Amino acid sequence: MKTESPATPPPAVRVWDPFVRIFHWGLVTCVVLNQFVLEEGKTAHEWAGYTASALVLARLIWGFVGSRHARFSDFFPTPSRLAAHARALRNGEHPVYLGHNPLGALMMLALMATVLALGVTGWMQTTDTFFGEEWLMELHEVLAHGLLIAAGLHAAAAIVMGRVERVRLVRAMVTGTKQHF
Ligand code: HEM
Ligand code: HEM
Predict the structure, then answer these.
(1) CA torsion angle for 108, 114, 20, 53 (degrees, to 10)?
(2) CA dist., res. 172 & res. 99, Å (int)
(3) Angle (CA) 89 93 97, round 5°
(4) Ligand 2 neighbour 113 (Cβ under 6 A)
(5) E strands of 5-136, at which residues?
(6) From ligand 1's centre to the CA of 1, what distance in Å?
(7) What is the mean pLDDT of residues 83-100?
(8) Distance separating alpha carbons of residues 16 and 167, to the nearest angstrom
(9) pLDDT at position 3, please?
(10) Which ligand neighbours the alpha carbon of 146 most closely?
């Protein structure tokens, strides 16, 4: 939902339910483990990757049955929502969204799709048909690096936009409550 203007900020509002928050930080943990900690291709890596994929699948279901701002209907980046948001940014406005803003939502969907693609390309390497296929390893690697870059941009955008809009976006993903400062 969009508020009227940043000049009339809402008071502290509960936006993210516990599922969304556990999903988010659980996903971050699995991805960080697989990128930097666990040995590539080993059992622990496979389990962390499958856990990340399962979290995303559960989140897709939650997008239909979850709380108000967790639902796709609340934030799905339709062309008209994206155009309106881009227009506002071009005009130097920073519309405040209680839930996800459309450009952020686009990135979140891309992040989730990439995690699923990593789960699928990782699993394929465990099958007799695709075991040892060079192109599949390459694809898995490219997806992993792409995810790292996209997640970096996403985290930076959350920090920067939080400062610009004077809303504690990152803290909200921890506590569930969005607050102006
Ligand atoms: C969030 C999901 C995942 C992430 C972020 C991820 C990340 C990575 C990274 C960074 C590498 C090293 C690539 C390189 O530089 O050579 C790698 C390798 C590998 N991963 Fe994953 N992975 C994920 C899921 C999975 C799953 C679910 C499986 C299998 C069930 C898997 C199997 C492998 C295998 C076999 C390799 C070694 C061969 C290769 O480079 O493709 N991964 N993964
Ligand atoms: C591997 C790294 C990451 C991935 C894959 C990821 C993925 C996601 C996804 C899928 C969402 C949507 C949440 C939902 O509606 O369920 C989201 C939201 C969010 N993420 Fe991340 N994230 C990552 C790292 C981070 C980091 C490091 C931060 C903190 C700096 C962060 C801050 C946020 C915030 C603040 C939101 C909510 C944005 C809003 O208010 O609209 N994320 N992220």
Answers:
(1) 170
(2) 11
(3) 85
(4) no
(5) 13-14
(6) 37
(7) 90
(8) 14
(9) 47
(10) 1
Can you say whether the dihedral through the CA atoms of 145, 108, 79, 139 is positive or negative?
A: positive
The DSSP call for residue 37 is I
Of 34, 38, 56, best ligand 1 pocket probe by most atoms within 8 Å of the beta carbon: 34
Name the residue type at position 121.
T
The ligand whose atoms approach the alpha carbon of 38 most closely is 1
**pTM to 2 decimals?**
0.93
Is the pLDDT assigned to residue 7 strictly greater than 70? no
pLDDT of residue 1: 44
Q: Which ligand is located closest to the Cα atom of residue 139?
A: 1
For the Cβ of 171 lying below 6 angstroms from any atom of ligand 2, the answer is: no
Q: Is the CB of 170 under 6 A from ligand 2?
A: yes
What three-state secondary structure class fits 89? helix
Question: Tokens representing 77?
Answer: 């980046």
Chain Cα centroid distance, residue 77:
13
| Highest averaged pLDDT of the listed ranges 4-18, 110-124, 161-175 | 110-124
Q: Which pLDDT does position 27 carry in this prediction?
A: 98
Reading the block at residue 22, the tokens are 């556990």
Residue 9 near residue 3 (C-beta atoms within 8 A): yes
Q: Does residue 31 or residue 4 have the better pLDDT?
A: 31
Parallel, antiparallel, or unpaired: how do β-strands 13-14 and 177-178 relate? antiparallel
